[in-house]
Automatic annotation (TrEMBL):
It is a multi-pass membrane protein. PROSITE patterns: UPF0003. Residues 696-777 form the Mechanosensitive ion channel MscS C-terminal domain. Residues 620-687 form the Mechanosensitive ion channel MscS domain. Residues 786-833 are annotated as: Disordered. It is found in: Cell membrane. Keywords: Cell membrane, Membrane, Transmembrane, Transmembrane helix. This is Mechanosensitive ion channel. Residues 291-475 form the Mechanosensitive ion channel inner membrane domain. PANTHER family: MECHANOSENSITIVE CHANNEL MSCK, POTASSIUM CHANNEL RELATED. It holds the Pfam family MS_channel_3rd. Belongs to the MscS (TC 1.A.23) family. The chain crosses the membrane at residues 231-251, 272-297, 309-327, 355-372, 384-404, 425-444, 450-471, 483-507, 537-554, 575-598, 604-633.
Length: 833
């Protein structure tokens, strides 16, 4: 819970340097000179009257723009005197702060005086300034430049005076804020008498008795003051309002809870939204019942007609109890649903009871404090009277922290609920333990300042969890873990940003403090010589988003409506669309940077250093980037082409600036760097057209009729529908193979993408027709001769001759009948065809 507060405090500390920086930045500008052109020291010293006259003219122009400028001067001087007074009250400082805040908003609106005219004069000066740095303008041009420079100084001076006045206001506001924070801290840690002293207890008991007696007497007098006629006249309205209030307070929460449970258990579309609306009515209708109850009591004369401190506190206490009940039911529901936190049913029941009791105790504390304050009881008396209820509330908070810390979850059943819940439970157990100790020790304000904001922060956290659960259920209606959607996370981040100011208000910040932080945030903060403003980022984001969406719209229109009606092929159309996308996004970024006023000149040195790194470390990436641009412009390949590169054959599916994605026939994607496509060898089967040649090798047995084979092959080629007639298919006798006569059927296909299908169909038809014609398609054959050396030769030491081989049948077809009994093979026995 402390992280949002730490971030808020850090932002405040970061922004507080804004006024000081603004004041320092104006020191050299008020004297009538621009930031770009500093006058020479001798010129400034030789013409003091001219500078004084220019300053007087600037002040006159500023006073004309702000007619009641004297009121501002008087207010600033009066606030400075108040800050020098150590006994000034907090209320006076707060009033002065509000006045300063209003004046600063007016002064900030005057900082853009003469902005249009200033832009025109600057353009004139840029037009007359020589391009070359060492060039000397002519005397006439130099005189004109000097006149325009003086005019520019005169136009800038009123705006600079307004900026100086707003900086003064910001400085005074910062001083007041610091003074108020110091007083608040001193009051927070001021120590009264310890509560355990007998005189403190006696004073508290006496104050409680006096407040109770005075409250009873007040209500008796109020009831007695209501006449009989007036009572009877108000009786019908009072009875109707009372009955309606009782119905809304007692019956409506149960009925709405039942309806919400039925909706959540149903499978209706949008049930998460309807369930949340029903849960919201569980707050709205009881609060309306509270209003009707107060109306009825006013009609009966029990409550005064106007609001008092006590009645406002009672109403706020009632709303607090209603909200506490709603949060406990939503976070720890009854029944089988485990709720957003996932605790078991027994744990949820204990937490509901403890949370409701804690909310009721805080409501009682609120009513008691308001009653005692209305009776002007002393701080010590209020502390003594509220101490027992404070101890009870601290005990309930301790029990709640212990349950959050160690309670078993429904999913695991273990006493471990995560680090965040463990830490949260420890924090609130610590708050519950420290609060009574501080109150007993006399630090009553510190005890209240720790306990009440802690409980309210816990309620804010519960509300955030309920809203986040709603968004999650909308995007995951079947209670599935929708990890692909980013919307719940973004909505959660927005909710955190919106709840930060609410949390700050709970912890003692005022609305004016938040407005001050927001004003300083919009004004930006200075980093070196650059002023970083959120408005610049918002302008950049808005302009770039518009440019990006416009580029995508034009791309979509070209791709779907314009380019299909042209003569460009698919690859050319995709190249035009991709190139337009890169150009459009680049122009959108440049226009957004220009309109946002972001100065990129300070990045020149960094860009120079990055260029060296790009030249060495990112050489491959730059090479692929340039190659991608070449592919898009030159278009040697396009989307839909069938290419072969690095042994991979597939269809081009996407060409980006770094790589190209091809889809192979195995339906796998292969990412190929663009540099390989530009510098390597690439076969594009479909570049220009889809016509391609197919070669089918065919081997027939020796002795086959060559002309008959040719006729069969030509007939197969002519009969296929994908084979074009001109040029006609060719059946070529290409050579004598080791085991066959080798032929080739060469055809031209209308669509080479069907090459594998055509190969399959033609091979099947060729095999069938050759078999029908009695023409054999041989397999590889060899003749194997095995010889045994004669015994005489062996005995005489003659070496065994090496086996000879020639084409014959496979070894599996040799049998013992192929050899002679003496081991000599018949030379003609194993010869094949």
């Amino acid at each position: 819970m402390s992280q949002p507060l730490i971030a808020l405090i850090f932002m405040v500390g970061l922004i507080m340097g804004g006024p000081v920086a603004a004041q320092v930045g104006l020191d050299g500008l008020i004297g009538g000179t621009s930031a770009e052109e500093e006058p020479a020291p001798d010129a400034a010293a030789s013409e003091p009257e001219a500078d004084t006259a220019a300053l007087d003219a600037a002040e006159a122009a500023f006073a004309a723009a702000v007619p009641d400028l004297s009121d501002w001067t008087d207010l600033a001087a009066a606030v400075e005197r108040q800050l020098d007074d150590p006994g000034i009250s907090d209320a006076a400082l707060a009033e002065a702060r509000d006045a300063l805040f209003d004046w600063r908003q007016r002064l900030l609106g005057q900082t853009g005086i003469n902005s249009g005219r200033i832009s025109t004069v600057q353009s004139q000066i840029e037009a007359l300034t020589p391009v070359a740095a060492d060039a000397t303008p002519s005397p006439a041009i130099a005189a004109r430049l000097d006149s325009l420079g003086q005019e520019l100084d005169r136009l800038r001076a009123p705006g600079l005076l307004a900026a100086e006045a707003s900086a003064r206001a910001s400085g005074l506001i910062s001083e007041i804020d610091g003074r108020l924070r110091q007083v608040g801290a001193e009051r927070m840690w001021s120590r009264d008498n310890a509560l355990f002293w007998p005189e403190s207890i006696a004073e508290g008991v006496s104050a409680a008795q006096g407040s109770l007696a005075q409250a009873i007497r007040r209500y008796q007098l109020r009831i007695a003051g209501v006449g009989e006629d007036q009572f009877l006249a108000n009786l019908p309205i009072g009875i109707v309002a009372l009955l309606a209030a009782l119905g809304l307070l007692i019956r409506s929460p149960r009925l709405l809870l039942r309806a919400q449970t039925k909706v959540e258990q149903s499978h209706a579309r949008g049930r998460a939204v309807w369930a949340f609306l029903l849960s919201g009515l569980q707050i709205g209708l009881p609060v309306a019942g509270m209003s009707l109850l107060f109306l009825a009591l006013r009609q009966f004369g029990v409550l005064p007609s106007g609001d008092t401190t006590v009645t406002s506190a009672v109403y706020a206490a009632g709303v607090l109890v209603i909200v506490a009940r709603w949060l406990n039911v939503q976070l720890f529901p009854k029944g089988e649903f485990n709720g957003p936190l996932g605790y078991t049913a027994d744990v949820r029941r204990k937490i509901r009871r403890t949370g409701m009791a804690l909310g009721t105790a805080v409501a009682v504390l609120l009513i008691m404090a308001a009653t005692l304050e209305d009776d002007n009881a002393s701080a010590l008396a209020r502390a003594v009277v509220t101490f027992p209820v404070l101890v009870l509330a601290s005990l309930l908070l301790w029990m709640l922290g212990a349950l959050l810390r160690r309670a078993p979850t429904a999913e695991t059943g273990e006493e471990s609920s995560g680090r965040f819940r463990h830490a949260l439970g420890l924090i609130y157990m610590g708050v519950a333990g420290v609060t009574p100790i501080l109150a007993l020790s006399g630090y009553t304000q510190a005890a209240r300042g720790v306990f009440a904001p802690s409980v309210m922060t816990l309620a804010i956290l519960g509300g955030f969890i309920v809203l986040q659960q709603l968004i999650t259920r909308i995007y995951a209606p079947d209670d599935s873990q929708d990890g692909g959607s980013l919307v719940p996370f973004l909505v959660g981040a927005v909710l955190v940003v919106l709840l930060l100011p609410v949390t700050a208000l709970v912890w003692g910040a005022s609305v004016t403090d938040l407005l001050e932080i927001w004003t300083q945030f919009l004004a930006g903060f200075r980093i070196g010589e650059t002023v970083v403003s959120p408005t610049d980022f918002l302008t950049f984001a808005a302009v770039f988003a518009v440019g990006y969406l416009l580029t995508r719209f034009i791309q979509r229109s070209l791709k779907n409506s314009v380019l299909p009606r042209t003569n460009l092929d698919l690859g050319g159309q995709n190249a035009v669309v991709s190139g337009l996308g890169y150009v459009g996004i680049t122009l959108a970024a440049l226009i957004a940077i220009t309109l946002a006023g972001i100065d990129l000149s300070s990045l020149a040195i960094v860009a120079g250093a990055l260029s060296v790194g790009i030249g060495f470390g990112l050489q491959t990436i730059v090479q692929n980037f340039v190659s991608g641009i070449i592919l898009l412009i030159e278009r040697p390949i396009g989307e839909g082409d069938m290419i072969e590169v690095n042994g991979q054959v597939g269809f081009v599916r996407d060409i980006s600036v770094r790589s190209t994605r091809i889809e192979t026939f195995d339906r796998t994607d292969v990412i190929i760097p663009n540099a390989d496509l530009v510098s390597g060898q690439v076969t594009n089967w479909t570049r220009g057209n889809l016509v391609g040649r197919l070669i089918l090798p065919v081997g027939v047995a020796y002795g086959s009729d060559i002309e008959q084979v040719r006729d069969i092959l030509r007939a197969v080629g002519n009969n296929h529908p994908l084979v074009i007639a001109d040029p006609e298919p060719q059946a070529l006798f290409v050579g004598f193979g080791a085991s066959s006569l080798d032929f080739e059927l060469r055809v031209i296909l209308r669509d080479v993408n069907w090459k594998m299908i055509v190969t399959d169909e033609m091979n099947g038809e060729i095999n069938a027709k050759l078999a029908a014609a009695g023409i054999e398609i041989p397999f590889p054959q060899q003749d194997i001769w095995l010889r045994q050396p004669k015994s005489s030769g062996t005995e005489s030491g003659q070496s065994e001759p090496a086996p000879q081989s020639r084409p014959s049948e496979p070894e599996a077809m040799l049998t013992s009948d192929d050899f002679e009994a003496d081991g000599d093979a018949d030379p003609d026995a194993g010869q094949g065809a």
